[in-house]
Amino acid sequence: MSFYGIVDGSEGSLKNFLSQLPGVDQVGAEARAAMLATRSIKTTSKRWAIDTAISMVDLTTLEGADTPGKVRALCTKAVRPDPTDLTIPSVGAVCVYNDMVSIARTHLDAIGGKHVPVAAVSTAFPSGRASMEVKIQDTQDAIDAGAAEIDMVIDRGAFLSGKFGLVFDEIVKIREVCGDRAHLKVIFETGELVTYDNVRKASYLAMLAGADFIKTSTGKVAPAATPPVVLVMLEAVRDFYAMTNRRIGVKPAGGIRNTKDAIKQLVLVNETAGPEWLTPEFFRIGASALLNDLLMQRMKMDDGYYASPNYVTID
């Protein structure tokens, strides 16, 4: 089987392709990311930027202490981030553990949130340490419960050992389970991949295997969504689109906590991949605390002062 006419999925073919990728200029990537971080958005565009960022948030709760009540409250906030201002868009998705998917989907449907998808972290999240049979069942359970998006983790040990075929095959199999029922986001855990070259290789490996999105991190390991890492991933999806005419999304997750950070991400997207990626269809931000800061900054634009955190719900 040929994947985009680029690789046949064999270990040798994958290694040959990945070895020919140009190395990442670490100094250059970090300098460009730092330069783009200094860009500002005009005041007249700031509301657009805030609302765009809100629409891209995958509102997330991934704690062992999660309860049905907490997930329902999160879903309510996802649909109407501020009940007093119905001009604010809903978020991009609600992201939860598998056992909370049905609760989230049922509540979203009941409150007029059918348009908000539920994303499930799957395949033995966050470690990825499980048999393929378990990973497949984990994914199938999430989809059957109502998940429209699957956030899978790659086997970082296999990747770092050079077993690219194993990682590739796992992604292909999970993509097959998703079929046309769910989009697949592939998580690299970039803090464990160590180098930008590895991030670039993982990006191409996942895209060739059928990922709809590539995602930086689980949020459980630091560093996570650093600007240079996101830059490298955005360059990868841009160049992959030029090669295949298939547009892949990017999801940074972990460490993006305030409006300033979110706007930096939008600048990175626009200046690296292009404005076509400035949509929830192709860019998401995995976060929990970020939404509150975006809401408070939006209030400040209306009222002229920064509201107390008491004006937004505690997640």
TrEMBL record:
Q: Which InterPro entries match?
A: Aldolase_TIM (IPR013785), DeoC (IPR011343), DeoC/FbaB/LacD_aldolase (IPR002915)
**Catalytic activity reported:** 2-deoxy-D-ribose 5-phosphate = D-glyceraldehyde 3-phosphate + acetaldehyde
| Key words of the record | Lyase, Schiff base
Superkingdom of this protein's organism = Bacteria
Q: Which GO terms describe its cellular component?
A: cytoplasm
Report the EC code(s) recorded for this entry.
4.1.2.4
A Pfam family (short name) is: DeoC
| GO terms (BP aspect) | carbohydrate catabolic process; deoxyribonucleotide catabolic process
The family database entries (Gene3D superfamilies) matched by this protein are listed as:
Aldolase class I
User: Top enzyme class of this protein?
Assistant: lyase
- CDD domains from the entry? DeoC
The Swiss-Prot or TrEMBL record annotates one GO molecular function as: deoxyribose-phosphate aldolase activity
Pathway(s) the chain acts in = Carbohydrate degradation; 2-deoxy-D-ribose 1-phosphate degradation; D-glyceraldehyde 3-phosphate and acetaldehyde from 2-deoxy-alpha-D-ribose 1-phosphate: step 2/2
Q: Which family does it belong to?
A: Belongs to the DeoC/FbaB aldolase family. DeoC type 2 subfamily.
**What's the protein called, per UniProt?**
Deoxyribose-phosphate aldolase
Q: Supply the source organism for this entry.
A: Candidatus Planktophila lacus
